Amino acid sequence: xxxxxxxxxxxxxxxxxxxxxxxxxxxxxxxxxxxxxxxxxxxxxxxxxxxxxxxxxxxxxxxxxxxxxxxxxxxxxxxxxxxxxxxxxxxxxxxxxxxxxxxxxxxxxxxxxxxxxxxxxxxxxxxxxxxxxxxxxxxxxxxxxxxxxxxxxxxxxxxxxxxxxxxxxxxxxxxxxxxxxxxxxxxxxxxxxxxxxxxxxxxxxxxxxxxxxxxxxxxxxxxxxxxxxxxxxxxxxxxxxxxxxxxxxxxxxxxxxxxxxxxxxxxxxxxxxxxxxxxxxxxxxxxxxxxxxxxxxxxxxxxxxxxxxxxxxxxxxxxxxxxxxxxxxxxxxxxxxxxxxxxxxxxxxxxxxxxxxxxx
Length: 360
Description:
Elements: H1 18-30, H2 57-72, H3 93-111, H4 118-127, H5 135-144, H6 156-166, H7 173-186, H8 190-204, H9 210-229, H10 263-295, H11 304-313, H12 319-326, H13 330-342, E1 347-348, E2 358-359
Antiparallel strand pairs: 1-2
């Protein structure tokens, strides 16, 4: 753990004095306006029935994909950040992917009968320094590949990293990449490509446990979808909903699996469900990112802009991590986060008095 993060939280600093307020107003007036991007509208009601109508799953998933695609391409005017993964994407795209990665990891931890929830996974990722990673932590690392450097894609390097994160027996990642790229290219449309490639990925995991192979296949489905839609990076979607009650079938409520005959229909229905949540999360993060970018010019701390970029690029940031990456002292980093919370530009995510973590 970062020792300095364990210090009790300080009260938010008192309001700046009048000269500083005048200087801040002057800086705001001199810099380009920030935080004025158009808000993301909610999904229309006709695109919200994906969980209830299996026969029309492809239609609802396609509609949700089309609208989500516009978000990722910055169609709603959200400002870019210098820390963004892709200049065409909105500033909060990194945070969006990492928060969805947390949901996917929590879902897979539940499938694996591990006890870690989202809060425990976030603590393990952002507060632990070195040491052995827990099985649930490895699941989190797998889905965090979607936003962490280097850029993840349907290639040998990404498949090798995914296999290592899951502890899979060594696979021919180059051969697997070629086979999966063939599946992705031959399928008639993106959802079918994700279904076919994920079923093929499962068969590549000889020697792995059935559940690890299934999680690898879900990860591959997201890689293939991103490749077919020409997204800058994959978005963790399918794993978060694969155990959703709406996808279960039969008297025992069995969840769908990649080798099932009706797996393509389950994939379409699953993406429809996942995109409902992803769209709502993106709309919320867009509002929060606009607020953060709007107050950024008023921040006087050295390295403050770098901290803003870190917050936009990840699910969560600790004061110690911000200090190390933005060239701040630990005290200055804690005071900066106190200031951002007082301005309602970020939230403290743990509710604790120590070992605090902040994010949009």
